[in-house]
Amino acid sequence: MSDDALVIFTPSGKRGRVAKGTSVLAAARKLGVDLDSVCGGRGICSKCQVAPGVGEFPKHGLSVAPDALSPINAVEERYDRIRGLKPGRRLGCQACIQSDVVIDVPPESQVHRQVIRKSATERAMEMDPATRAVFVEVPEPRMDEPSGDFQRLARVLEDDWGIEGAEAAPALLRTLQPVLRKGGWQATVAVHDARDGRPPQVLAVWPGLREAPLYGLAIDLGSTTIAGHLVSLTDGAVLASSGLMNPQIRFGEDLMSRVSYAMMNPGGAAEMTAAVQAALADLARALAEEAGVEPEAIVEATVVCNPVMHHLLLGIDPVELGQAPFALATSEALALAATEIGLTSIAPAARVYILPLIAGHVGADAAAVALSEAPETREDLSLIVDVGTNAEIILGNNQRVLACSSPTGPAFEGAQISSGQRAAPGAIERIEIDPVTKEPRFRIIGNDHWSDTPEFGTPEITGICGSGIIEAVAEMRMAGIVDASGLIGSAEQVGSPRMTATGRTHEYVIHDASPSGPRITVTQGDIRAIQLAKSALYAGARLLMDEMGVERVDRVVLAGAFGAHISPKHAMVLGMIPDVPLDQVSSAGNAAGTGARMALCSIKARRHIERQVKRITKIETAIEPRFQEHFVAANALPHATDPFPELSKVVTLPEVSFNTGGDGGAGGGRRRRRG
Amino acid sequence: MSDDALVIFTPSGKRGRVAKGTSVLAAARKLGVDLDSVCGGRGICSKCQVAPGVGEFPKHGLSVAPDALSPINAVEERYDRIRGLKPGRRLGCQACIQSDVVIDVPPESQVHRQVIRKSATERAMEMDPATRAVFVEVPEPRMDEPSGDFQRLARVLEDDWGIEGAEAAPALLRTLQPVLRKGGWQATVAVHDARDGRPPQVLAVWPGLREAPLYGLAIDLGSTTIAGHLVSLTDGAVLASSGLMNPQIRFGEDLMSRVSYAMMNPGGAAEMTAAVQAALADLARALAEEAGVEPEAIVEATVVCNPVMHHLLLGIDPVELGQAPFALATSEALALAATEIGLTSIAPAARVYILPLIAGHVGADAAAVALSEAPETREDLSLIVDVGTNAEIILGNNQRVLACSSPTGPAFEGAQISSGQRAAPGAIERIEIDPVTKEPRFRIIGNDHWSDTPEFGTPEITGICGSGIIEAVAEMRMAGIVDASGLIGSAEQVGSPRMTATGRTHEYVIHDASPSGPRITVTQGDIRAIQLAKSALYAGARLLMDEMGVERVDRVVLAGAFGAHISPKHAMVLGMIPDVPLDQVSSAGNAAGTGARMALCSIKARRHIERQVKRITKIETAIEPRFQEHFVAANALPHATDPFPELSKVVTLPEVSFNTGGDGGAGGGRRRRRG
Asked: Which SUPFAM superfamilies does the record cross-reference, listed alphabetically (chains A, B) (predicted)?
C-alpha cells in the first residue's frame, strides 16, 4: 500500500500526490490551489471549506472511497454545532487525506474568485486584492529576547503565511501594542502586498480573530461631483455608494477656471487641494456610516480623476495643464499612504492607488473607463464616451486604441442652462413633444408617471437636469420648433402659443406655474450651450475616427453617471455621437467608477491598465486643427425627424428653417449659420 | 598596433583593457572604479578630476607615454581658465585613453572616500551616503508623447546614471515642474538609494547644475537635550552643531515620569510627540541658518535616541516601556519620510533613518555608540559608558558584546543638584580643593583661568554643571570633607570655616557672593544624588562584567557630551567606573552623535549596526537581582586619596569618618551606612 495519495482539486484541475495524513489545506497550498484561510489552519475561521467528492470520477479515472478523508473531528463538530456547516462540507484544515480523492473548492472558499455582481452592468469582478486578512498568534515579549512586538509579528507572518519582510508605518505601530495585548497575543492583521516591488505592509490590526471583511473605497473624483463606493475586498460587493459636490466648484466651475485660479492666486492650488482632500475624508466617513462598517476596516482606496483634479488632489500646481504642451508632473500610477491625499478618516495606515493618467487632458478616469470597457479585447470597433464636464473619448478594437478628451463644458450636467439643475428629485429628466400640437409631456426624477397622466399629481417641478435638456432640445428639433442651425422659431413660425419672444430670440415654455411656481423654458441660449457641448463631443469622436481611418464605428458606449441616463435616440438626433444602429448604443453606467472598483479588487487589473495606458495612442484635441473644423461642422442639429421611427411614433414633418435676420442668440456668432 | 589599451587606476589597483579613445570616466565606470561625476560627463561639474601618471611604473611593469591621454581640450582649457585646474589634473570625462596609462583618482574625486575629520576624536568618516546629486538633461514634454515630467526625468536617470525605477513622493512632484522649466530642462537632482529593497527616490531638484553639497542632519535626541549636527554628505564635515532642551522636560524630567504622564493623561503621548517633533523642526531650522545652507539642501537625517524618546518621537505610546517585560513596539531600524517625525523644515521629500533599538531600555543611542566605538573590532575588553539621564553601558571585545542601560537620573547633568545647572557660561566645570586648607579653586565655562588667578577677573558665577559636581564631590572626598559613606563633616570635624550646618547636615561653600550674588554650595543632598547616580552606573557596568565573567576591563571609554568633560580621575575617585589604569580611560566625545553621523554618511554603517545590534547580548538591569546588590554595594565613595598621585600633587591624609548619629540627608535612608 502506497504512503501517498492522489488528490485532484476542482474546478482548478490541479492534482498531485501528497503523503497520507496531509490536511486538505496543506495539500492545496502544496499544489498551489487557491483555498482561502484566515486563521492559518487553526479550525476557527471556516474560510477553507471544501466539498469532497465520493464515488466514481470517470473523467479523472478515479474511484473515491467514502473514507478518503479522515472522519469529521471534534473541531469540525464544534464548528458545525455553533456556526453550522453546509451538508457535504468539510474544513480543509481539519480533514486529512487518507486515500485518492477529488476535492471541490467552492467559490466562496477561493481568494481569487470571480464574483458576478448584480448591478447596472452585471460586471464580473475578479478578486485579486492587494490586502488580505490573516490570523496570527504572536509570541509574547521576553526580556531575554527584547525584539519589538512588530518584529515578532513579522516573523509569524513569514513563518506561518510566507509573507516576507513585512513592514509597518508609524500609524500602524501606534495601535499595535494595545491590540496585541487585548487579543491575548492573537490578532487579525490586514497585510498589503501590491506586488509592485515594495515590501508587504501591515495596514491594520484587530484583537483575536476578525471575521468581517476588509473594505476599500473606489473614488471617482470628478470636476463637479465626487462619487465613492465602499467595496468589500472579499467579494467586491458595493456596500454603500455616495456622492457629493466637488468643493472646488467655488474656485471655478470648469477645470480651466480652476487652473486660472491657481495661476492668479498665490496659495490657490494649496487651497483647492485642502478643499478636495477634506471632501474625500468626509465622503469616506459618510460611506462607512451608511454601510455601518468601522472606518478602521477600510484599508485601501483607489482614485480615478482627470489630470487637473489629479494634480490638485496631490497638491501639485496644475498650471502646466493650462497651456500647451499640457505637461503632466507625473503620469504613471501612484501608490501612496492614504493620508497623503487627506484620507484621514479610514484606517490610519491605509494605502491608496491612483490610476495612471493617459495624457495631459486624458486622465485616470479615462484609464478607468478603458479598464472597465476593455475595447482592446474586442474585434469590433467601440466608441466609448464618458460624458461629464470634460468628455473622455476612447475609440478602439483589438488592433489599436485611441483616446482624447474634449472640453464639453458643464451644459450636459444641467449647468449653464437657464432652467438647468443637477439630477435631483423634481428635475425634468424625460420629455416628449407632440410634433403636431407642440405640446410637451415630461417626467421628473422621483416620480414614475408622465406629467399628462392623473397619477403624476402636483409635485414640485424644479428645473431640467442634463438628460432632460438633451431630450428637450432633440424633441424641439423633431417637432420643428428648432431648425437645423439651432434657431428657435417664433409663435407664428412654429404655430404654438408655447413660443415666447425674449428680445430678438424666442423660448419654448415647458412648464409655467408662475407667478407662484417656476417657469421652465428652453431659451435660445440653452440651445447654443447644448450645441457647443455636443459639437465638442462629436468633434472629439470624429478626430479619433480620422486617426483610425474609419467613417463609422460598430458600437457606441455611453459611460458616466450621466451617460447612464441619456436617451441614445435623442443623443443621435442632436448629433452628439456618430450614427450607429440604436441597438449598438449601450450604457456602461459609471464606467470610471467601475474601473476604480476593478483596480481596488485586483492587482492584476492595476498591472493591466498600467500596461494598456502605455499602448493607447493619445490625441490632443486642443492643438489639432481638424478638431476645430469638426467642431464647427458639427454645430448643426442633423436630424429633423426621428431617426429611429420604428421605436417611436412615426411622424414626418417638413424640414423647417427660421430666418429672423438677426443673431440667433448666445454663441451663435461663432458658428456657421444658414443664410 | 592594438586597438585597446591597458588602464590601471590607483589607489584602487583596478585594471583592465579599454578601447583606445575611451574617456577616463567611461573607463572608470567600466572597471567599477569609484570616480565621482555629477554632470554625467558633460565637462561642467569637475568632480571627475584625475591625475594621470607619466613615465616608468615598475610596480605595474608599465611605461606610460607622455601622450597616453588625449591633449587638453577646449572644455578643459575653459574650465581651467574660469575655475582653475590643479597642475597635473585632467577632467576624467574629457581626457581619452590613447595608450597604456596609470591614473590616480585623488580622494576628493571619490564618492566613497574615507575622510579624516579633525574633531575631538579625529574620526575617519567613511563616505557611502544614500543620497547623491546627479545632473540631468530632461527631454521636454511633447504632445505626441504625453508622459509626465517625472517619467522623463526617471528615464534619464536610468539611461545616463543607471538608476532604475526611481520614484518621487508628492512633496517632490510639487516642486518638479517649475524647477525643470527654470533650468531650461537641465537640473540637479538628489537621488536617494539606501539599498534596502525600496526603489530609489528623488528627494530634491534644483535648476541647472548645482555644485554645492547635499546635507544631512545627525540628531541625538536625548531625554534632556537634543543635539544636532549639520553634515555635508560630500565629505562628512560638520558645518554646524546645535543643541536645545528637550521640550518634553515639562512633562517629566526623567523617562519614567514621561511614561507616567502618558499613562495618566489621555492624549499625553500625542502632546509629547508634538512637542518633540516641533523641537526637531526648530533645531533643523537653526542649524541651516547657522551654517548658511538652504534648508531644501538638507535631504536626509539620522536619529539616535533611547527607546522612550524613540516611541514618543514616532507617536507610539511608551506605556509598555514602563513595566516589565519592557516590550518595544518596534525594534529594528526605520526608514521614513522626514515629515513623519515632524522634520518639516528641511527638503519636503527628505528621508530619515532611525537607528535600531537594542532592547526595551537600551536604545538607538546605545546602538550609535556601539557603531562609533566598535568594541567588536578589538581584542581588548572595552567598557563603554554613555553618561546621560540614562546611562547606556556596553562591554565587549571581538568575542562578545553585551549592553544594558542604567537609570542614573539627571544628577550627572547638573539637575537635582542644589546649585546645579546645565553646562553654560558661568557654570563651574572644574574644581580643586586643597587637602590641607580645604580651600577650593575652580574654573567656569567661558573663562580659561582658575579662580585663584588675577586673570580670572570678576565674572558672573552661576552654578555647577555636571562635570563640576563630580569633581567637587571627588575633591571633597579626597580632601577629607566627605567620608566613605558620603557624609559631609562639620566645620569642627573638617577644620574649615567653609563648612556650614544646615539642620542636621552640613554643606561645603565653594563660592559665596551673598547677599548680592549667588552662594554656591555642595549639600548633603547633592552628595546623595551623586551617590545614587554613580551607584547605578557602576552597578550596570558590574552586571555586564559578571555576565562576561570578568573582574576587570582593559579600557574604559566615556561617551556622551557630558562624558567628554568628566575628569576620569575624579570619576574613579567617586567609583563611577571600575578602576583601570588612567591612560586606559578615554573620552569618545559625543559617541552617539558620531554614530548618528556615521549612519548619515554611510549605508554600509547602517547595515553594519543593524547586523551588530542583533548580535549584542542584552541585559535588563531592572529585573536583575544582582543589579540591586551591586547598586547597594556601590554606594560608598571608595577612594579617600588620589588614586593617581603621580598625576597630581601627592598628599596623603588619614581616612576620615564622620558619625553624627543622625540621618545624613536625602536618599541616605536607602543605603548601607557605616555604623
From this structure: 2Fe-2S ferredoxin-like (SSF54292)
